[in-house]
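Reading a protein record of the kind used here takes little practice once its layout is understood. The reader may check this reading against the record printed directly beneath this paragraph.
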Amino acid sequence: MVPIVHHIDKEQAQLYSLILNSVGIGNRVVATGGDFCIHVPHTLKEKALEAIDRYYDENFDSDEGNVETGTPNLTHIPVSGIFVALLLLSVHLAVTTSSAPGDYMDVFGADASRIVRGETYRCVTALLLHSDAVHLAGNMVGLILFGGVVSSVAGTGVGWLAILICGIVGNWMNASAYEVRHLSIGASTSVFGAVGIMSAYQAVIAKQTGKGWKRVGLALGGGLGLLAFLGTSARSDLGAHLFGFVVGGAMGASYGKWIPLKKGPAMQWLSGVAAALLVVGAWVRGATG
């Protein structure tokens, strides 16, 4: 017997067991700490995975999606993605209608020379600033789509905290690479962090479920393709995009390999509050510093 699906709760385990039993595949539900996994005969591994995939293909209205085998439901976009996009819009409108929009860029933008001198709050605040409506619209769409996918897999609180951390660390790495007066603004570092998270997560799950290196290559190649297509325009900050993607990749791989699929409500709330405090604290620090 070999495991095919990891880090699921008891109800999901019972559902998968029922699916496999219905197509005549013997299986065993095994408790692993606080989670469960499904074991099937080695010779029936591929057939079992196909049966589970087929179930989700035929029941595409499921809100959960086939996340346990690495395929989140892309037809379901969590409301949190729209909320974050509207937050970006609100900040942009507040900045552009103020008496001195340029002051916001000077005080809150990711100025590399100031970040390396200790003004690390800029790594956070710069994520909410955008140069124009086109810049803003692109990042709003990116966060709704890619951020929505991450939060559908990891949960709302954990997902958005992870995306925020990708943006923060990506901006810090970009500033450390420049170490001179280089100004970066926009949520695109977090957008590509989300792309990196899902690319690496999909690759790890494909490897764990025995879908082969071809599926792993497709997952990673898709993420790199998006980086090349969306993140290398003449006006974009390639360094910030690349570092965001790298941090997201490391986070997605770690999540897929070692962390249970979804944390409970307490962890989601705690992570969501932590993300909010990071953002608010950084803006307060910049405004009072």
